[in-house]
Design goal:
about 150 residues, Rossmann fold, two-stranded parallel sheet, 2 strands, elongated
C-alpha cells in the first residue's frame, strides 16, 4: 500500500513538472501590453483630485480604473463597485461622466469614498474660510489679552 502511494506521488510530480514546462513555454509566447503597467506613474500622478486624501490598503491606481471605465463603458452608463474601498472607481466614474453606485461593508471606506466624491460649492467653501479667519483672529485677540500683550495683526 505504501509503495502504491509513493508511486502515485512520483507520477503526479512528473505531471506537475511537465505542466510547469508547458505553462512556461505558453507564457513566453504571450505578447504583453506594457501600457497596462503604469510603471511611469509617480505618487504625484496617482494623487490628483482627491485620490490622496487617505491611504487605503490595496488601493487601485486611478489611471487603471479610468482606463477600464473609458474602454468598457460609455458616458452616462452605470458603473457599480460593490467593494468600493476608498472610492477610486467611484471618483474616476464621476470624472469620466458615468453614473456610479458604490457600496462597502467597511464604514471607514464608506466615509472616505463619500468625502472624496462629494462636491463642495465654492461659495460655501469661501464662507467657511472667512468664518475660520474670523475665528482665528478672535482666538489671537483672546490669547493676547491672556498674555497681557498688544494685539497686532
Amino acid at each position: 500500500m505504501l509503495a502504491d502511494i509513493l508511486e502515485t506521488n512520483r507520477n503526479s510530480r512528473k505531471m506537475c513538472n511537465f505542466a510547469r514546462k508547458s505553462d512556461i513555454k505558453m507564457l513566453n509566447d504571450i505578447v504583453i501590453d506594457k501600457s497596462w503597467s503604469f510603471t511611469g506613474c509617480s505618487v504625484k500622478d496617482t494623487s490628483y483630485i482627491t485620490h490622496s486624501y487617505y491611504t487605503y490598503p490595496a488601493k487601485f491606481i486611478p489611471q487603471l480604473a479610468s482606463r477600464l471605465i473609458v474602454e468598457h463603458s460609455q458616458k452616462g452608463d452605470v458603473i457599480i463597485d460593490p467593494f468600493m474601498g476608498s472610492g477610486t472607481t467611484i471618483l474616476e466614474s464621476i470624472v469620466n461622466e458615468r453614473i456610479t453606485i458604490g457600496t462597502d461593508i467597511n464604514e471607514i471606506a464608506y466615509l472616505v469614498a463619500k468625502v472624496k466624491t462629494t462636491p463642495i460649492k465654492p461659495t460655501e467653501l469661501a464662507q467657511e474660510f472667512l468664518n475660520l479667519e474670523i475665528d482665528l483672529e478672535y482666538v489671537q485677540k483672546l490669547y493676547c489679552v491672556f498674555l497681557n500683550t498688544d494685539y497686532h495683526l
